């Protein structure tokens, strides 16, 4: 198993994180999700059996408010250390026997001994936001998003060689989308990409804009736009600024070719969101070759499925993930 710096547990976990990779560990039944159990609602046979054998340790606290009678009983008599945080129950630690079982099962299935390693173990609830936040422990990651023609073109004379309003809308919605409404996303781009955006649209709204350049100064950009010399410097800037890091959700790389090349070669690169345009176009900027360690994955439900068409141009949305 590759070196790991963050491990999380979750029930009903079907989403993977964007800030860091997740390798979901299969349970005893070979499934990669372990749903919870509610009274009179057996979600999974093994979980149902566990309720019968160990009912007092079967908890439902996370999905209810702190004043729920069941939660109150768990807080008072249960084996978990549960605290009231803004009217929501929060589990602080696993009781000794359950922690021992969790650690031994993890070692048995992965070969990783959490008790004797530097791994940070995270116990999460059944929300994908919890899984997503847990991934930040493994180090800040980023995604790349780009539209590319059949001949690998991505730009012409500082702009786009095609007119696809629906694709621009997809780009905007994808790079703005957050699970936590108190946070926002980051878009990182090179100097030419930034100034290739129409003046009325830059900086890109509702996102933190970062421009990579060694020739520009802060006086060349609006106050709300950050300037960094290169991609790695920008990522370390976030990691060293806890206030800023905790205010962002997803980092997106949006161009140009040189930044894309550095991004795809980086261990921080998690996914490529590529719009594949099914036609050749005259271009003067081209997408670098995608490394072999990226493989296509099933897209999220928010991404339009199948072949799209606009202005006589066919295109399809694809997602690739670094193995």
From TrEMBL:
Any Pfam family the entry gives? DHFR_1
| Cited PANTHER family | DIHYDROFOLATE REDUCTASE (PTHR48069:SF3)
* Swiss-Prot/TrEMBL keywords: NADP, One-carbon metabolism, Oxidoreductase
Identification of the protein by name: dihydrofolate reductase
Q: Which GO terms describe its molecular function?
A: ATP binding; ATP-dependent protein folding chaperone; dihydrofolate reductase activity; NADP binding
Q: Which PROSITE patterns match?
A: DHFR_1 (PS00075), DHFR_2 (PS51330)
What are the recorded Gene Ontology BP terms? Answer: dihydrofolate metabolic process; folic acid metabolic process; one-carbon metabolic process; tetrahydrofolate biosynthetic process
Bias-annotated ranges (Basic and acidic residues): 38-47
Q: In which pathway does it act?
A: Cofactor biosynthesis; tetrahydrofolate biosynthesis; 5,6,7,8-tetrahydrofolate from 7,8-dihydrofolate: step 1/1
For the protein in the UniProt heading, the enzyme class is: oxidoreductase
Give the reactions, separated by semicolons, that this protein catalyses: (6S)-5,6,7,8-tetrahydrofolate + NADP(+) = 7,8-dihydrofolate + NADPH + H(+)
In terms of domain of life, where is this protein from? Answer: Eukaryota
InterPro entries xrefs: ATPase_NBD (IPR043129), DHFR (IPR012259), DHFR-like_dom_sf (IPR024072), DHFR_CS (IPR017925), DHFR_dom (IPR001796)
Species classification: Eukaryota, Metazoa, Ecdysozoa, Arthropoda, Hexapoda
- What protein family is recorded? Belongs to the dihydrofolate reductase family.
| Record-listed E.C. numbers | 1.5.1.3
- What is the role of the protein in this entry? Key enzyme in folate metabolism. Catalyzes an essential reaction for de novo glycine and purine synthesis, and for DNA precursor synthesis.
Record CDD domains: DHFR (cd00209)
Segments forming domain DHFR: 141-322
Question: Where is composition skewed (Polar residues) in this entry?
Answer: 1-17, 48-59
GO CC terms:
mitochondrion
| Secretion signal span | none
Which portions of the sequence form the region Disordered?
1-76
């Amino acid at each position: 198993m590759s070196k790991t710096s963050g491990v999380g547990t979750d029930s009903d976990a079907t989403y993977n994180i964007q800030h860091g990779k997740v390798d979901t560990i299969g349970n005893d039944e070979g499934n990669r999700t372990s749903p919870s159990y509610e009274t009179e609602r057996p979600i999974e046979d093994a979980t149902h059996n566990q309720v019968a054998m160990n009912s007092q340790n079967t908890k439902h606290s996370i999905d209810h408010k702190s004043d729920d009678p069941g939660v109150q009983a768990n807080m008072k008599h249960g084996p978990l250390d549960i605290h009231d945080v803004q009217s929501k129950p929060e589990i602080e630690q696993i009781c000794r026997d359950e922690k021992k079982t969790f650690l031994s099962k993890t070692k048995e299935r992965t070969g990783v001994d959490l008790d004797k390693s530097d791994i940070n173990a995270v116990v999460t609830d059944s929300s994908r936001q919890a899984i997503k936040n847990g991934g930040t422990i493994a180090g800040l990651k980023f995604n790349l998003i780009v539209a590319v023609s059949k001949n690998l073109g991505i730009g012409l004379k500082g702009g786009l060689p095609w007119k696809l309003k629906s694709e621009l809308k997809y780009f905007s919605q994808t790079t703005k989308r957050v699970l936590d409404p108190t946070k926002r996303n980051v878009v990182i781009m090179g100097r030419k990409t930034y100034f290739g955006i129409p003046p009325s649209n830059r900086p890109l709204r509702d996102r933190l804009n970062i421009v990579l350049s060694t020739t520009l100064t802060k006086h060349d950009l609006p106050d709300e736009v950050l300037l960094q010399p290169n991609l790695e410097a920008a990522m370390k800037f976030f990691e060293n600024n806890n206030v800023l890091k905790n205010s962002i959700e997803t980092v997106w790389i949006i161009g140009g070719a040189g930044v894309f090349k550095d991004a795809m070669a980086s261990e921080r690169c998690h996914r490529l969101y590529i719009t594949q345009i099914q036609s050749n176009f005259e271009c003067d900027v081209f997408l670098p070759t995608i490394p072999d360690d990226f493989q296509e994955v099933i897209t999220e439900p928010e991404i339009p499925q199948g072949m799209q068409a606009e202005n006589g141009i066919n295109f399809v949305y694809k997602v690739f993930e670094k193995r």
